[in-house]
Design brief:
single chain, mainly beta, three-stranded antiparallel sheet, binds zinc ion
Length: 68
């Protein structure tokens, strides 16, 4: 079976309020910086998710409390 290059994937982020791990699907074909709000599946508080790509296409995921 051939492995195809993925252009999208599920990323994991930790809730900044209760610490639980959440997953969110992102489209990596967009490229550049993505910055959006996701609600935690457990405590329902909004977290700000920031996704950045470097020149080697490494993906960095950062979660921040929304009220900071
Ligand atoms: Zn939470």
């Amino acid at each position: 079976m051939l492995k195809t290059q993925t252009t999208d994937e599920d990323i994991v982020w930790a809730c900044q309020y209760c610490g639980v791990l959440n997953t969110v699907w992102i489209d990596l074909t967009i490229g550049g910086k993505q910055d959006f709000i996701e609600d935690c599946r457990i405590c329902c508080r909004p977290n700000r998710i920031i996704i950045t790509n470097d020149e080697d296409n490494k993906v960095f995921i950062e979660a921040r409390p929304c009220d900071e």
